[in-house]
Design a protein that fits this description.
two-stranded antiparallel ribbon; MetI-like fold; globular
Length: 284
């Protein structure tokens, strides 16, 4: 009886795993298939799930530079997204790590209230902040520039990085830091020589989350950038939909290209993501 219950439990567990994998991977598989289909395949009734022949013309036009219109802006959008996401990730990691160390190790008045206020900003909808943000960027003369997008992304990413790194710093034994201070190491020395090296998984996890958030940001990039020199890939992809119709094949191809950097990043550093999140949840 017990063995039957275990067998049934395993079958249900594997069935649930398969269902989750299908739910997660099926949309991406359909995106890839759509990018190598023809427009007639995607607009036929009934829908043709598997194209009769693979069509790589869309990718050839994008990489050869012979495409016109919004397709020609994909390279610029990809480069802008890499610059914005990379810069926002680096700045958020540096500033967030120092802020997290302050909240983890130092004592000052109203520390809990300040930390709670920082986390509270995560609950404010972006639509409420976008108009003040637009006005501030306009006053600073930063509209339609890369720095405006970097600053906007940092404003939303920093609280998350501070929260993640604070939990991880608290899991690092204080005795190690105290021993280093006794040996004559300064506070900054202990941060760079002890705390940060021991926090590599946390830094990797925070960096990956920060990069993905910045890479996928659309609303602020749409409002703050109206010229090609500052548009990110998410904004460029939205321009495949116009009043005269939607270029489904081009949109799918652009979606595949836009998904490659975060997917590769998550696959390469998935070990550090798990280590960072689990280690930051347990005090050492």
């Amino acid at each position: 009886m017990v063995s039957r219950q275990r067998l049934l439990g395993r079958i249900l567990l594997y069935a649930a795993v398969v269902a989750v994998c299908v739910a997660v991977l099926a949309p991406y598989a359909w995106l890839v298939l759509s990018s190598v289909s023809r427009r007639v395949d995607l607009t036929s009734v009934p829908l043709r799930w598997i194209p009769k022949s693979l069509n790589f013309e869309n990718y050839r036009q994008i990489f050869s530079g012979s495409a016109g219109g919004v397709q020609a802006s994909l390279k610029v959008g990809l480069l802008n997204s890499l610059i914005v996401a990379g810069s926002a990730t680096v700045f958020s990691l540096v500033a967030g790590s120092f802020a997290a160390y302050v909240f983890s190790r130092l004592r000052f008045r109203a520390k809990g209230a300040v930390f709670s206020f920082i986390l509270l900003t995560q609950f404010v909808p972006l639509v409420v902040l976008i108009i003040p943000l637009y006005v501030v960027m306009g006053r600073l003369g930063l509209l339609n520039t890369i720095p405006a997008l970097v600053l906007a992304d940092c404003a939303f990413i920093l609280p998350l990085v501070i929260w993640l790194m604070r939990g991880f710093f608290e899991s690092v034994p204080r005795d190690l830091e105290e021993m280093a201070r006794i040996d004559g190491c300064s506070r900054f020395g202990t941060i760079f020589r002890i705390i940060l090296p021991l926090s590599t998984p946390g830094l990797a996890a925070s960096g990956i989350f920060a990069f993905i958030i910045a890479w996928n940001e659309f609303f602020s990039a749409l409002v703050l950038s109206s010229t090609l020199r500052s548009k990110t890939i998410s904004v460029v992809i939205s321009e495949f939909s116009s009043k005269v119709g939607v270029d489904y094949v081009a949109m799918a191809g652009a979606g595949v290209l836009a998904s490659i950097p975060p997917v590769l990043l998550a696959l390469l550093f998935q070990k550090y993501i798990v280590q960072g999140l689990t280690a930051g949840s347990v005090k050492g």
